[in-house]
Amino acid sequence: MDMIIEYKINAPVTTEQFLRVLETSTLGERRPVHDRARIEGMITNSNLVVTAWAGDELVGIARSMTDFYYACYLSDLAVSRDYQAVGIGKELQVLTKKQLQPGCKIILIAAPSASTYYEYLGYKSNPRCWVLEP
């Protein structure tokens, strides 16, 4: 696939664009895509959003919450199925890291099927993660 992908930092993303990339990636299966208010809150209140665009179509997103100095929680990493396996997800993470100060950690909760992907990129597994469900 011959494509030109443009990456942007904190570019405006509409709720509809965010929903579309979630639904066209595997991440939509684990996000509240039927709760528009939650999806809108998720995109509106993120303080670091790195996006990948094919023309005016959002095809990838790395959505994070961070203090930029100590910890960055990479909450969503999604790439539309038609654009997967060409390095977009990796580039979104590289660009996320470049926005952070030296020494700032990126923390994420991986989908079970993505564990080997993150290990390949240099992430270390941490058994001390705890989640308090609502």
Characterise the protein shown here.
The chain is an alpha+beta fold and 134 residues long. The chain has a single domain, classed as Aminopeptidase (3-Layer(aba) Sandwich), CATH 3.40.630. The protein is 26% helix and 25% strand. The protein has helices spanning 15-23, 36-44, 88-98, 115-120, and strands at 6-9, 48-54, 57-66, 71-79, 105-107. A 5-stranded mixed beta sheet has the order 1-2-3-4-5. Strand 2 (48-54) and strand 3 form a beta hairpin. The radius of gyration is 14 Å and the shape is globular. The model has no long low-confidence stretch (mean pLDDT 93).
Labels describing this entry:
134 residues, alpha+beta, Aminopeptidase, five-stranded mixed β-sheet, 5 strands, 26% helix, GNAT_dom, Acetyltransferase (GNAT) domain-containing protein
Radius of gyration: 14 Å
Biggest sheet, open or closed, and with what strands and sense?
5 strands, mixed
**Structural class, please?**
alpha+beta
Q: In CATH, what is the homologous superfamily? A: Gcn5-related N-acetyltransferase (GNAT)
Pick out the low-confidence regions: none
CATH class: Alpha Beta
Q: What is the terminal separation in angstroms? A: 42 Å
InterPro entries: Acetyltransferase_Butenolide, Acyl_CoA_acyltransferase, GNAT_dom
Organism: Thalassolituus maritimus
Domain N-acetyltransferase: 5-134
Protein name: Acetyltransferase (GNAT) domain-containing protein
